[in-house]
């Protein structure tokens, strides 16, 4: 039994992104094809990804 499942294709290059069956909302995953980062936005009934937000400086706030 495998602990990986196939999620939708990368939103940038269409490479399939392998996702752990233990994935949780908010997890960040990288595409092995192009490096695009994706955020897990839905886990049931299927895993759905969206582009991860850009990292921004908080300037100490």
Could you provide a short overview of the structure?
The chain has 61 residues and is mainly beta. It has strands at residues 4-9, 16-20, 28-30, 37-42, 48-51. The protein has a domain at 7-42.
List keywords for this structure.
61 residues; globular; mainly beta; 5 strands; single chain; three-stranded antiparallel beta sheet; two-stranded antiparallel ribbon
Structural notes for this entry:
This is Lysine biosynthesis protein LysW. InterPro entries: LysW. It comes from Micromonospora endophytica. There is one protein chain. The protein is built from no helices and 5 strands. The chain has a 3-stranded antiparallel sheet with strand order 3-4-5, with no helix packed on it. The model has no long low-confidence stretch (mean pLDDT 83). It has 61 residues and is mainly beta. The chain has a domain at 7-42.
Strand content: 35-45%
- Kindly name the structural category: mainly beta
Principal-axes geometry comes out as: globular
Helix content: under 10%
Contiguous low-pLDDT stretches (5 residues minimum) are none
**Mean of residue pLDDT values:** 83
Task: Specify the biggest β-sheet.
Answer: 3 strands, antiparallel
- Number of DSSP strand runs: 5
Distance between the termini: 46 Å
Which strand order do you get reading across the main beta sheet?
Answer: 3-4-5
Our count of helices gives 0
Name the helix and strand elements from N-terminus to C-terminus, one letter apiece: EEEEE
Radius of gyration: 13 Å
InterPro entries: LysW
Pfam family, one: Zn_ribbon_LysW
Protein name: Lysine biosynthesis protein LysW
């Amino acid at each position: 039994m495998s602990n990986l499942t196939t999620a939708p294709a990368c939103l940038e290059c269409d490479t399939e992104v392998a996702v752990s069956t233990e994935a949780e909302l908010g997890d960040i995953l990288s595409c092995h094809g192009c490096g695009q980062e994706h955020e897990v936005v839905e886990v049931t009934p299927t895993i759905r990804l969206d582009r991860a937000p850009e990292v921004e400086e908080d300037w100490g706030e």
